[in-house]
Amino acid sequence: MRLLRLSLQDFRNLERVDLAPSGRATIAVGPNGQGKTNLLEGVFYLATLKPLRASRLSELVRFGQERARVAGRFVLGGAEREIAVEISQGMRQAFVDGKKASSLEEYFGGVAVVAFTPDDLDVVKGGPEGRRQFLDRAVFNRFPAYLRENRAYARALKARNRLLKERVAPAYLESWEETLATTGSRLWTRRRALLSELAPRAVAAFAVIGRTMDPPSFTYVPAHLDADVASADEPALARALREALMLRRTRDIERGFTSVGPHADDLEIRLGERPARAFASQGQQRALVLGWKIAEIENLAAALGFLPLLLLDDVSSELDPERNAYLMGYLAKSGAQVFLTTTDPGLVRGAAGDDSLWYRVRAGAVEPMPIP
User: Pick from 203, 213, 372: which is nearest to 299 by CA?
Assistant: First the structure.
């Protein structure tokens, strides 16, 4: 897979960008707040239909404009293909080769991207929501149908929560609980499948960069359910969730929200016998995330047969020199197509080669620049 052409119009603060990225490293340089991250978010949104940072789609449209558009021409399996997405009035429309996409599966069609941002480095010590999002991004990369499945669960969850706030009779909750049980068990199954593939690779990567004898572990922890569901099949998971929803109805009605399900779960990360959130040093926390990202890249390459597109948003400034040098060397040797942003070109020079392209980003304008 390779991105041949990228076009953005009125996306965030970028009025118009049209560039042919390098097949290896494309590097955006500039001070903070100029639009470097917006460039990467455009690529990420194009490849996933999910914002990298925004909570609402309307935030992706440049101020004062009615719509935004991102388009990319890819080589996929030896054939060229263009995908595009337009955002207007809080809605999006996806296109494949100039025609409206008939399904999410048709749109994605083999496009894969792994993003690494400074926010990811806070995942270990942060709250469960951040770790769920971190995990779900990897699940979606591996199983694109997860986007549709996650949305189905979110709709059912929103409906049940609305009824809980209205304090309706329990009988009115049953149909939504059935949907939550079915869709929730599917999310659990996807997350568990991803972890079974990715965790061993993350452990191996951490062993190289972690500087500790304590091996890490990554465990999916369903909230308010017995430990034996960890190995249950999907029908058994659905039954367990259905029973838990029923048992917690009274409490949920009192509190006005659904307290059990994939939206309440956690990704437990440990070093040896101790929780990494409480006991890992900052350097070890960063090494855990770095190991996870390397594992995600390698797992996708093994599953899909090609390397994903890599997006790194000013991560180098957050890593110590030794781990940054390791990451830059890994990127240079991987052969993957990479987009990097930085305020300091010297931090990412290790990932660049003679065929790298450098761009200066200033006040929403993206212009070619000489090799620094």
Answer: 203
Residue with tokens 């025609």: 99
d(CA 184, CA 196): 18
Alpha helices for 210-361 (secondary structure H): 234-247, 249-255, 276-279, 282-304, 321-334
Token pair, residue 206, equals 């951490």
- Identify whether the C-beta of residue 22 lies closer than 8 Å to the C-beta of residue 351: no
Q: How many CA atoms lie within 13 A of 38 on its CB side?
A: 30
pLDDT digits (tens, 9 = 90+) for 232-270: 899 999 999 999 999 999 999 999 999 999 999 999 999
Residue 219 has pLDDT above 90, yes or no: yes
Interval 263-297: pLDDT, tens: 999 999 999 999 999 999 999 999 999 999 999 99
How far is C-alpha 268 from the geometric centre of its chain's CA atoms? 18
Amino acid identity at 186? R
- Cα 184 to the center of its chain, rounded Å: 19
pTM above 0.70, yes or no: yes
Residue 61 has pLDDT above 90, yes or no: yes
Report the DSSP pairing between strands 25-29 and 338-342.
parallel
Nearest Cα to Cα of residue 181 among 239, 267, 126: 239
Question: H or E element: which one contains 157?
Answer: helix 146-165
Residue 210, SS3 per DSSP: coil
Rounded-to-integer distance, Cα 60 and Cα 50, Å: 11
Cα four-point dihedral sign 290, 294, 296, 299: negative
Q: Quick one: which of 56, 68, 50 has its CA closest to 113?
A: 50
